[in-house]
Amino acid sequence: MEGNTEILNQNKNHLENQLTPNNNTVLHISAQFGHIQCVMEILNIFPSMYRRLENGVGMAKDMMRMSNEAKDTALHEAVRNHHPIAVQLLTQEDPEFCHPANNAEETPLYLAAERGYVGLVFVILETCTVPVYGCTRKLLQWKPALSKEADAYGWTLLHYAARFGYVLRAKDVLNADKSVAYITDKDDKNTALHLAASQGHVCVIAELIAHCMDCWEMVDGRGQNILLIAVKNQKKRAIKFILQKFPLSSLINQKDVDRNTPLHLLAASDCYKAGLVKHPKADMMAFNNASLTPLDVVCSKTQFGRLQCVEEILNECPVLLRRVNNKCETPLHFAVREERLDVAKALIDCVKELDRELESGGGAAKEILRATNEDKDIALHVAVWNEHLNLVKLLIGEDPEFQHPANNVHETPLYLATEIGCDDVVSAILGTCTSPTYGGPGGRTALHAAALIKNRFSVLINVQKKNRSMRRLLEWKQDLIKEADEYGWTPL
Length: 492
Known about the structure:
The chain has helices at residues 5-10, 26-33, 36-45, 74-80, 84-93, 108-114, 118-127, 136-142, 157-164, 167-176, 192-199, 202-211, 226-232, 236-244, 262-267, 274-277, 294-299, 306-316, 331-337, 341-358, 363-370, 379-385, 389-398, 413-419, 423-432, 446-452, 463-466, 468-476. It is elongated, with a radius of gyration of 35 Å. The chain has a domain at 400-492: Alpha Horseshoe (Serine Threonine Protein Phosphatase 5, Tetratricopeptide repeat). 47% of the residues lie in helices and 0% in strands. This is Ankyrin repeat-containing protein.
């Protein structure tokens, strides 16, 4: 038979009733000989016929579900003759059909397994929601090695069952050979348990652990255990299940190749799970490879809704407010850099609450606000450099009497604001701080920076019209015009 789609179209009104002496439909014949274009054309011609059930003699049957004298469907023919594309097309068009056995008690799945067509087995299992897997036990009893046979990606039957949440299929495979649970795929080194965790299939996770008590200890190619994987994929039910099970809760502080704990990944995601943050075994002070604690991570992220996670972490471990990374940066530095006004407020409020509890007179709050990183930048330096005006106002409002020190390149926040031309920040600092410092590198002052920003050495007499920062500085301290740098140069 030739795969001629034109003939099919010319006779499309009669194809439904065209049968061979063995009751084969045109779809049977096309599937048997692997005429893919014909299979596709037939599926296109009869879209309204899919899902139609027989309801009496003379009514049309769904062509995909029609069987011949041997009770073979078109899928039987495609599998028997090893036509993978035809198998894929047929299963995708009717995934919920429970493919029955033929007169020889063979289902399409059984035929694929019997002939060693592992790829077709995987296609049927992956696509069909009910592929008559009552044959699973018989298949595994007949050929136990089938449970360990993998496809080109290293996926076994158990990998597919775990990925798609097929609990009964997973149970049948595990009953046949539970060692399959320890097989990893080729690329990511995932076990079936890792795949179940990534999809949040709690029932499959429970089944796997019930058969293999120690398989939960395995990690994937990135060193991630099932809790890390569940958190990364934001599967809340799986996270809850793992935390409630002992000894699975011991996974809570294990690190991946980047030395991230589950809390680090939680902080970096949009998934908030209080049970993880409040778990008694959770190590809030763990550092990853970037020398970040979970609080540092959540403060440096810009996702909506992170404030709740910040507050929970601070409630559980307020000492993190003072914890610095390898660059001596505090969580406040991170929040300010990312323009997280809400997070910065939460951090400051938390430390002020500690001051009240300790009756320390605001010492802890000032310590956080005045903490410097390895470049000797306080949080205000960071806010100024990034021109985050609202954060500048917050920081100086909380500590207005502090005489801000210069950083490693001898820049005070006021000098830096003037140098980058941020007039609003200059005005905010001068209007709020009681004794702001104004020095810069080379003995220069903020007024030097204002003059240099547009190379204005001859316009000071007209400063009110041309430079707000210069005008504001001179209004604040007229004598600045006389102060010289280390070379003896004044702003003039």
